Amino acid sequence: MTTVETVTGTEKTMVLNMGPQHPSTHGVLRIVLELDGETVVKAVPDLGYLHTGIEKSCEDKTYSQVITLTDRMDYLNPLGNNLAYCLAVEKLLGLEVPRRAQYIRVMMVELQRISSHLVWLGTHAIDLGAMSVFLYCFREREEILKIFEMFSGQRMMTSYIRIGGMALDPPPGWRQAVQKVLDMMPSRVDEYEELLTQNPIWIRRTKDIGYISPEDAIALSMTGPTLRAAGVPYDNRKVFPYSSYEEFKFDVPTRTESDCYARYLVRVAEIRESLKIVKQAMEKITDEGPINAEAPGIIPPQREKMKTEMEALIYHFKIFTEGFSPPPGEAFVAVESPRGELGCFVASDGSPKPLRVHFRAPSFINLQALPKLVQGQLIADVIACIGTIDIVLGEVDR
Amino acid sequence: MGLEIVTEPSGQKTSVVAESFRSWKQEAVAEVIEFRGETTIVVPREFLRVAAEYCRADAKLQFNLLSDATCVDRYPVEPRFELNYHLVSIPRRDRVRLQVKLTGADPIVDSLVPVWPGANWLEREIFDLFGIRFNGHPDLRRILLPEDWEGYPLRRDFPVPGFRDVPDTGDVFKKSRIL
Known about the structure:
The complex is a heterodimer.
Chain A: E1 14-18, E2 30-36, E3 39-46, H1 54-58, H2 66-71, H3 78-93, H4 99-127, H5 131-152, E4 161-162, E5 165-166, H6 174-196, H7 200-206, H8 214-219, H9 225-228, H10 236-239, H11 260-284, H12 303-308, H13 310-321, E6 329-337, E7 340-348, E8 356-360, H14 362-367, H15 370-374, H16 379-389, H17 393-397
Antiparallel strand pairs in A: 1-2, 2-3, 4-5, 6-7, 7-8
Helix pairs in contact in A: 3-4, 4-5, 4-11, 4-16, 5-6, 6-11
Chain B: H1 12-24, E1 31-35, E2 38-42, H2 48-57, E3 65-73, E4 81-89, E5 94-102, E6 108-110, H3 119-130, E7 133-135
Parallel strand pairs in B: 2-5, 6-7
Antiparallel strand pairs in B: 1-2, 3-4, 4-5
């Protein structure tokens, strides 16, 4: 149990324990609050309730097996986690992924970003008392999850992005399914904005709440929409393009107010930008073409080849019994997850199992700024501030 | 194995960092590693904080964002710990990795919280999982594990299934089984 030293002594203030089962903490996060009346004097987050030791488990898995663990880390962004890990291993291997697979990856990750932002918007709104937005957001998210199910057979833990390419070719009829979402979403986003953007209650609950200056945000290593709402246009897709993002036209929405309302506007604008990227990616994806790199010892061979070619059979056997061994070295890759910079650090010692896999979890690092955001605010604003950072406890605790 | 090797960038941009480091303080650079287009600057332990401060404040480098801090345990090789700090320069669009090697007998290093307040939780995580101590850290407590946890689970000599605390079952579950 974390005990907290109060700032002013026990005479004037009281200590309130928020969580770990508070509904607005979106998981199991405990925050110890020191209150002067209704005003927060000090906040101390206490984490680790969901720690599952994913980074330790990676030591005992082969490189391909780790992918399934990454799904379970940030469970609103499994494809983004897959991508970060696969890019890191591919960098370690020096593997070039075919263009077609890169476009499919971009499209899937952007759909994932939309669905993650929808969950964020819905839960954030329900925390602040707007029930109906939640229902609408989850209605649209369901359509996106159906696309994931169509592509990979799974709604959430897709493991669709693999080292060197993709697990499967896009299924027949995928264009219509994606087009349906593209046609539907813009008007639906307008609908959410109609419900919230000019809503006086929403504005009073979010405007001028949870301010952080851009200098403080950078010093506290914040990334993602929270940093962009402070006016710093730092987006990995633009600054350090990966997976062919340099070929896509999109804007990085920024605001300068740096309060909860600005972060809301940035995320809603990001949904619209993601739709643009999905549309471009869909046009770029050809109907025919490779989805995997040419790397026989790393990519499992096709089923038909295994029945006719001795080599394919041997590779198949080796990949699934022993795995493959990247050269000794280290690689760090950062991608833009819906929450910020998601980094993956992989160190290899030349054996088939990674020496160390580490994830730079954006929720974990952004959460660090929470005490700064809530200081001097009312206790009801703590809920708005937690929501606005957009944490996923599975990723915070890993 | 038929791998296509990605052509590595000429290192024009990254060598700037190494060069300006060398011209600033020759003894602060133990080694410069270039691998897959990433620059790693190995810094002796006593220079870590000044080197970090230099990276952040120097007008030519401007590494203003501490992206990540993590540790690798190379047990049983000594020095077994490698601390990696990943720095980003938002204005210059560049990345660099500072690395410090620490021995198992004396895993203590200066904290970077005075340079980047964002190092706070990252260093607490490393302390929690690797048992590395940070000099001058304002709040060095366990962060992910319970406070009464024994041992440092991400060290390589900590078995992946953990130490099984069960009654004597013969040779099946030995308390200090090392995989």
